[in-house]
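Bug #2210: token dump truncated for Elongation factor 1-gamma?
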Amino acid sequence: MVLTGTLVTPPGYHRSWRALIAAKYSGAHINITNYSPGETDADPSFLAKFPPSTVPVYEGSDGTCLFDANAIAFFLGTDQLRGGKKEHLVTQWVNFADNSILPSVATWVYPCLGVTQYNKQNTDKAKSNLRSVLSYLNNFLRSVTFLVDDRISQADITVFTALHPLLTHVLDEAGRKPYPHLIRWYTTVANQPEVLDVVGQVQFCVKEAQFDAKKYAELHPKDNKSKQKPVEKKPAKQKARNESESKAVNGVEEDDEPMPVQSKNPFASLPDGGFDIDAFKRVYSNEPIEEVAIPHFWKHFDPATHSIWYCEYSFPEELGMVFMSCNLINGMFQRLEK
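Reproduced locally. Full output below:
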């Protein structure tokens, strides 16, 4: 029996490719409906069948409703793709793709596409993790054609789709060079007719994509606060006058509550200086510290308006764990703030 149904997914979503490729192997007839955030998952008929903000989702002509790309792919695929008696190995690689590959790929690639904000520390950690993952895959594929047995399975399809953003956007020729066996396997999977029908011809990365702050700002415009209608408030002086008049009319004498004493900034009379601390924080967080952040600090530091203090702990031997010194630093800053 040939399966027929509809897959709701964003266009070109790599996780949905798992299900669509599986359908190509089994011959299932799949219609595609584009998913629009805030619209599709706001439809009561959608929410009656699927969890909110979940893609892809599948609804079969027989009424079968499934969410999660892996579940849909296993349902639409063949017994061979599922691994047969080696289904446990296929499941192993599918979970490996989702837990060990995709999070790091997303951390590195998504900022380059303007999808998420860039964080240097997180990106460096993701790159380090991916180097370990790619080395493991390269060694594993040294003497085998596919991940499970000698024929393509859902394991290959899933790992292939998880690596696709990495190999097409940020891992250039120099980055791919240490992993010849992995690239050979990837090219083999990419050239399968069923994969080509869904993904198209794979174009490997030529130049590593970089984070573009302008592109990110365009995709994530800030809320226009000026459009918000201001809340009309009664002037404080007029309110006080009305209250005093009311007291006089009613002949009620009440003790006035003391006015709160407004704190005065002791540094208000000092010049601001030209050292932009917030700009330095951004450089420190997103750039190499020794090569970029420290030179930036000395270039922009203004000794006329700022000073540098060196502090030592009274009992450093009691600060064996990092969080202990962090707690002391946070406490000191809280006391320094007015």
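Output looks complete on our side. Residues 223 and 229 are 13 Å apart (CA to CA). Marking as cannot-reproduce; reopen if the truncation happens again.
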